[in-house]
Design brief:
441 residues, alpha/beta, six-stranded antiparallel beta sheet, 12 helices, elongated
């Protein structure tokens, strides 16, 4: 296996939702320092520089055709020295990675499948192919090109120098101290040969690097074994933004993928568009997340109960204290360490998930995806809770004890709860969630 298994889903910050293609070294470090001080104690430990860090002409709201990407003599992308001044004189991301590591954090970057068009146009030699005179032009595949980003051509994996190119780039990233790579244009359509070649290059680099695959549109469960063999995490959706429809669409995807999450690999619902986003992003203008407080709780709860990786997109230093509290609720984050996580019920607007904790605790997430408030009595047996009144059930977002009643006969007060069971009485606002924890007696 090319990547190291992780006992819990990766957690970190990614520059995309705030800065798109334009993030600077100073902004990365500001977010890293904030994370180290406020979020690291809660498990958030990875800082990721997203796409186009090599483009000196990068701008918000899109990509530049024929961008003058910074490259070395071997056609390997280098950081733009204007935005990342510590990369001057060929230092690459090494100094920035050192600064992030000094904070107790891990450093990650975004990469694209394939080989730069500029390298192909210049026929740059490929490192590690001495004696064959292979160049970027020899390994490029113009029939398998990313449809949404103009920087790269595909690789012809029938040519042995294609693997050598990936090997050379991963050797470079390993020398910089990269711990995490988000490799894009891998999953839509599914690029099996690229995934295998990239994972092999990580293995050959000699460094433990977690591999995240994107973008995840139309991803099928038939790919599960292949994904587990080659990646740490993989997207199960397209880009997710601060719109309720984006969040709601992931209920069905997580129901399909969450039972397969574990240390062998993590289905990824994409970044958390929470806090201050859109500063110079690909979509929208500077704003606080447009999700309502209820929708933000739903987002965090669903991602956690499904044990998705958590990559927050808001600019941390300028996000509100309420956002930071949302990201650091210890009871909610404990869901990432549960087992047997699954959707157990979905009828109309009511969606129920259950999960089991290693300490014997049981969790229930009750979501209201509708437009009107819900007042329901949940049958304990329907959500994997004991059908007795032993122990205590608390609601974790509001830190309140949940009212329960033993049901001895059928009644309107506990409609749908069988006699001999226990009813949990909950009220759920539109687009909101209640998150219950039953402690083992």
């Amino acid at each position: 296996m090319a990547t190291t298994p992780t006992p819990t889903p990766p957690m970190g910050w990614n520059s995309w939702d705030s800065y798109g293609t334009t993030v600077t070294e100073a902004e990365v470090l500001a977010n890293a320092r904030f994370m180290a001080e406020h979020l690291l104690p809660h498990g958030w430990d990875t800082v990721v520089v997203d796409i186009d860090w090599s483009d000196p002409t990068a701008r918000s709201h899109g990509y530049n055709a024929d961008a003058p990407l910074a490259m070395d003599a071997w056609g390997r992308l280098q950081p733009d020295v204007t935005r990342f001044p510590s990369s001057v004189d060929g230092a690459g991301f090494g100094p920035l990675a050192d600064a992030v590591h000094a904070l107790g954090l891990r450093f990650g970057i975004h990469t694209m499948r394939g080989i730069p068009r500029r390298a192909v146009a210049q026929a740059t030699p490929i490192l590690g192919t001495d004696g064959t005179d292979a160049t970027a032009a020899d390994v490029a595949d113009a029939t398998n090109v990313c449809e949404w980003n103009p920087d790269m051509l595909g690789l012809n994996h029938d040519h042995p120098a294609a693997q050598a190119y990936y090997d050379s780039t991963l050797a470079l990233y390993a020398s910089w101290g990269v711990d995490f790579i988000k490799c894009d244009d891998m999953l839509w359509p599914y690029q099996a040969r690229d995934i295998e070649a990239y994972a092999l290059a990580i293995e050959r680099s000699g460094r433990s690097i977690e591999l995240s695959l994107s973008p995840g549109r139309d991803l099928s469960l038939t790919r599960l074994d292949h994904l587990r063999e080659h990646a740490t995490m993989w997207r199960i959706c397209d880009d997710l933004w601060d719109r309720w429809e984006d969040v709601e669409a992931n209920f069905a995807r997580f129901a399909r993928w969450a039972p397969h999450a574990g240390s062998h690999g993590w289905p990824d619902g994409d970044m958390l568009p929470l806090g201050r986003i859109g500063l110079r992003a690909e979509r929208g203008e500077p704003r606080d997340s447009l999700l309502t407080p209820a929708e933000r709780r739903t987002l965090m709860t669903l991602w956690c109960v499904a044990r998705s990786p958590l990559m927050v997109g808001g600019d941390l230093p300028t996000s509100s204290p309420e956002t930071i509290a949302l990201l650091t609720n210890p009871g909610v984050l404990a869901l990432l360490r549960t087992t047997a996580s699954r959707e157990v019920f979905r009828e109309g607007p009511l969606v129920l998930w259950s999960a089991q904790g290693h300490d014997g605790a049981a969790y229930v997430a009750a979501f209201n995806t509708g437009e009107a408030p819900l007042a329901v009595a949940l049958d304990a047996g329907n959500v994997d809770l004991p059908t007795t009144l032993d122990g205590e059930v608390r609601e974790l977002w509001r830190d309140a004890v949940v009212r329960r009643t033993a049901v001895t006969e059928q009644s309107d007060a506990a409609r749908g709860v069988a006699p001999g069971s226990v009813a949990l009485h909950v009220e759920i606002a539109p687009h909101d969630v209640v998150l219950l924890r039953h402690a083992a007696p």
